[in-house]
Amino acid sequence: MHSAEAKKESRGAHARKDFARRDDENWMKHTLGYWENEKVRLDYRPVHMNTLDDEIQTLPPKARVY
């Protein structure tokens, strides 16, 4: 719940009426949650955009259209 509230965008199944668009510039990252001292602490790590070998093509990110 803490990470969903912190994320100011909509992406895939994470949809917010107050932030209806995807925001790759600010939110193309993984959210990590930690329980410390009776509180949730959020941290982030980058998304790796490349595949592990040259056999599989890297696909650029794009918004899903339903």
UniProtKB/TrEMBL annotation:
InterPro entries hit by this protein: Fum_R/Succ_DH_flav-like_C_sf, Fum_Rdtase/Succ_DH_flav-like_C, SdhA/FrdA/AprA
Keywords carried by this UniProt record: Tricarboxylic acid cycle
Positions of the Fumarate reductase/succinate dehydrogenase flavoprotein-like C-terminal domain: 1-66
Pathways involved: Carbohydrate metabolism; tricarboxylic acid cycle
Cellular-component GO terms for this entry: mitochondrion
Any one GO molecular-function label of the UniProt entry: flavin adenine dinucleotide binding
Protein name: Fumarate reductase/succinate dehydrogenase flavoprotein-like C-terminal domain-containing protein
